[in-house]
Amino acid sequence: MSAPLLKIYKRMQWLPFGQWLFSKAVCRKAPYFGSIKPTITQLEPGLCCATIPKRKAVFNHIGTIHAIAQCNLAELCAGVMVDATVPHKTHRWIPKGMTVQYLKKAETDLNAQAKIVLPRQWQDKEDLIVPVEIFDKQGNKVFHADINMYITAR
Length: 154
Prior knowledge:
Layout lengths: L3 H9 L5 H12 L9 E6 L2 E6 L14 H19 L5 E12 L7 E6 L9 E11 L5 E13 L1
Antiparallel strand pairs: 1-2, 2-4, 3-6, 4-5, 5-6
């Protein structure tokens, strides 16, 4: 059985501007993510992809996308993916920590991917490390995060 968030995503894909509407709904639930204006472009168990546009509101003092905007994108991707993957009836999750690497200046729109290997057995308590990669328009990796998600049985 699909997670509630995944069901909503699948239903909205058939609507005009469905990805944009879904992304807006996610940002209503977690308003801080709205500051980066994300669009979730792909969602399935074990995978979430999202984009953010290059725009002045997320620039740093040197005119590139701010490090914390990249962290927000990474946390959004990881959280949405985990929410779409963890069995809701038996488990819940919360971010526990994040380790990041800024690999190159982020000077364009950005594309992020959070991906874990499936299938897997969910433990009663576990730390799930979710790798998130962020790429610029040219496909260069500009950022990497390992986000520690604490998964626990209800």
